[in-house]
């Protein structure tokens, strides 16, 4: 199975409401500074949408956002353009991009993130329908990736079961995780 269009979200810790207004200026600065490896083009403000996408930094290849889906704020990296390479390379690229964004935003006072939980979504229902068969097909790559990131058997995965949703896994690691160490493991 080829994993493309990966989304990775790291959550705010502790879970709390986040003032999204300052992010409008922060994300606009990222465009001017060319702060990511992707071409960044605009910022969209969805703060008015309850449990929605929050503030989105729109790029050509990928979007970044401080997302509030399911009322759980976090940094969401959304890879839109296909990537060459192996599933492992694509998983590491998405995790690295998300963790670099977490690192930059984590420098802001009052905004901290947890490496203990993440959400992985394949944003392509044709490539990865939300079924048990998809999970079984992707399991070898997912196990290798999460074992390298968190250590063998040191995490749990739970698939969202609603078949109309995109293929989404919630990962919870045992004990706290240092974000810098996670970034180092995917760099």
Radius of gyration: 16 Å
- Describe the biggest sheet? 8 strands, antiparallel
Which regions are unreliable across 5 or more consecutive residues at pLDDT < 50?
none
Task: Assign a percent range to the helix content.
Answer: 25-40%
Distance between the termini: 24 Å
Question: Your description of this structure?
Answer:
The chain is an alpha+beta fold and 187 residues long. It has one domain. The longest helix has 20 residues. It is globular and about 40 Å long.
Question: TL;DR of this structure?
Answer:
The chain has one domain.
Topology of helices and strands:
Layout: E1 6-12, H1 21-33, E2 40-46, E3 54-59, E4 62-67, E5 74-79, H2 87-106, E6 113-122, H3 132-150, E7 155-159, E8 167-173, H4 179-186
Antiparallel strand pairs: 1-5, 1-6, 2-3, 3-4, 4-5, 6-8, 7-8
List the keywords:
29% strand; 187 residues; 8 strands; eight-stranded antiparallel beta sheet; 32% helix; 4 helices; alpha+beta
């Amino acid at each position: 199975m080829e994993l493309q269009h990966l989304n990775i979200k790291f959550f705010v810790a502790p879970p709390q409401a986040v003032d999204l207004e300052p992010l409008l200026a922060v994300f606009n600065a990222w465009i001017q500074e060319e702060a990511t490896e992707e071409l960044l083009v605009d910022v969209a403000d969805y703060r008015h949408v309850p449990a929605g996408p929050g503030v989105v930094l729109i790029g050509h290849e990928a979007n970044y956002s401080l997302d509030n889906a399911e009322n759980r704020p976090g940094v969401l990296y959304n890879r839109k353009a296909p990537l060459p390479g192996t599933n492992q390379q694509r998983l590491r690229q998405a995790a690295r991009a998300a963790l670099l964004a977490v690192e930059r935003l984590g420098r802001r006072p009052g905004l901290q993130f947890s490496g203990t939980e993440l959400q992985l979504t394949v944003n392509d229902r044709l490539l990865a329908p939300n079924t048990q068969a998809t999970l079984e097909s992707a399991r070898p790559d997912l196990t290798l990736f999460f074992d390298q990131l968190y250590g063998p058997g040191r995490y749990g995965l739970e698939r969202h079961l609603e078949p109309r949703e995109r293929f989404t896994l919630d990962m919870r690691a045992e004990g706290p995780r240092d974000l810098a160490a996670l970034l180092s493991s995917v760099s």
